[in-house]
Amino acid sequence: MIDKLQKVFPSAILEDDVPKDERHLYNIYTANDYQQHRFALKKEELTEKDEQLLEVFLAVEKKDNYLKPGDYEWYTYLKEGGHPPKTLEQFSTFRFFHLEGKKLQENHSDLYEALSYYFNENVKIVYIQTNSLLILVPDQDADMFDPEELAGILTTDLLLDVFIFAGRRVHKGEDIRTTYNQENLLFQRARALFPKKRTFKEYESLPFILPLLEKHQQKQIYHYAFAGLETESELIDTLYQFFLCNLNSSLTAKTLHMHRNTLQYRIDKLMDRTGIDIKQFSNAAALYILIHTSKNY
């Protein structure tokens, strides 16, 4: 669809390609039957009649219509390069739950109540677009919450057809905007690859997505997946050998001439940083592929 738009409006691009410091120059549109991407057109290129015509076929995103006062800080921080929101200070570690689906804004009161009841935590719920929102969940008990279970509740109780991505552990000190963008990239690519699947968790889709990315994107995902620990070469080499030894701690320690306590310390360090269990097949496969691919950078 972007190709068709560009024939009429040469400035048309995907929303994700808009430079953060130029977002105010664009109108953002969403095709009602094309939920994977949003489109951006330069305001200066549009006449009043153009805007009226576009709104017949596309939904224009007007953040004033759906963003609450507390959401503006988060929206401008994540999407427009603004300053970190003050509410971020109350979270030391947390996870992002990304939700997308039709009629989320129309059902915002019931949805907020259902989400608050489900998480039973002091969660922060932020609308990013009318059809997408972000939930910041304190990390203490985040493993108790399952995206598939949540999707089932929203479908049954609110009759909402939603897509959910649950990310890794996020730390206040890291680049949270970049983390959000990496998870959003994984979410959108996973939805495109698996259109019938409604929920995605951490790294499970990464092995399928990685080969489709440009090299610079692969490096960004590598940094995201290891939460900044990719610079610790001893840790990465130890993990790689652990995977080559089929997650056998005794064999890995013997192969590396390493005490098992040292091996366990390094494994625990990654698990504590990311909040994922690297002994689960999907996580181990993703990290193995990432390390293996990185050796060819």
UniProtKB/TrEMBL annotation:
Protein name (database record): PucR C-terminal helix-turn-helix domain-containing protein
Location of the PucR C-terminal helix-turn-helix domain: 235-290
Matches recorded under PANTHER family: CARBOHYDRATE DIACID REGULATOR
Source species, domain of life: Bacteria
Positions in coiled-coil regions: none
Organism encoding this protein: Salibacterium salarium
